[in-house]
Amino acid sequence: MPARARPLSPHLQVYRWQISNTLSILHRLTGVALSIGLVGLVAWFIAVAGGAQDYAALMRLYGGAFGWLIAMALVFAFFYHLLNGVRHLAWDVGFGFERRDRHASGWLVVAGALVLTAIALVLAAHFGGSSHG
Amino acid sequence: MDESPRVGMRSPLGRVTGLGSAKDGTGHWWAQRLSALALVPLASWLLISILTLPNLGYAAVHDWLSRPLEGFLAALCTGTLTYHSYLGTTVVVEDYVHGRAAKLLSLIGLKFMHVLVGGAGIFAILRLTMGTLVS
Q1: Domain B27-134: which topology?
Q2: CATH architecture classification, A19-128
Q3: Helix, strand, or coil (residue B97)
Q4: What is the crossing angle of helices A52-62 and B58-66, to 10°?
Q5: Domain definitions of chain B by residue range
Q6: What pLDDT does A133 receive?
Q7: How far A83 CA sits from the closest chain B CA (Å)?
Q8: Is pTM beyond 0.95 here?
Q9: ipTM score here?
Q10: What is the DSSP string of A1-53?
């Protein structure tokens, strides 16, 4: 039998961009970003265990403006991944599958992540005073 | 029907019998969900703890991480985060890295990296908590 072209699932290039697939891809992207962030967190723990000198050396990298920007981006990624993860867990037990619910929970996740990131910024400023200590 | 070359004289049924489900097809799925569930409180605790530290100077962070309960929770969280990260990034590599060699090497690399990161993180925290016991 000659090889016949099999039907393909909708390709990315012709797939209409919408909130569902955007949030799905964002979940993976934030997950990968947080995995890289985990390496940074562990490096931070190692520096604390290594003593004041090691810690100061690492904080020169983390404490700068660029480090702060990355940290805040990771905080947003964390809250997004957390809230959207809970959204996924709700689906897993059978809640929120209707189109309206899916879209509402999607926007709720985005808004929630932004609000929580803002609260985290305020908390860090209020308690930390400065990121350098 | 698929015209794949027949090797030997076994029937199509004979060839697939025993090659089916390894009976743990949902194992990865479950592990990802359970670790996610555990991380909802654990990772939230870790982030809030760090955000509410008086400052991020050495003394404040050292004191915090050296306390038994905080050290224990941070180690637990590091282990669970590493496991969850391993499960997630593995799926990403399986989906997007093509080619047998590249995929296999990436998956092995991911496994080694995660054991290294998780082990190093937990070891560092244990040094802090145990250190306060010994000295």
Answers
A1: 3 helical TM bundles of succinate and fumarate reductases (1.20.1300)
A2: Up-down Bundle (1.20)
A3: coil
A4: 110
A5: 27-134
A6: 40
A7: 9
A8: no
A9: 0.87
A10: ----PPPPPPPGGGSPP-HHHHHHHHHHHHHHHHHHHHHHHHHHHHHHHH-HH
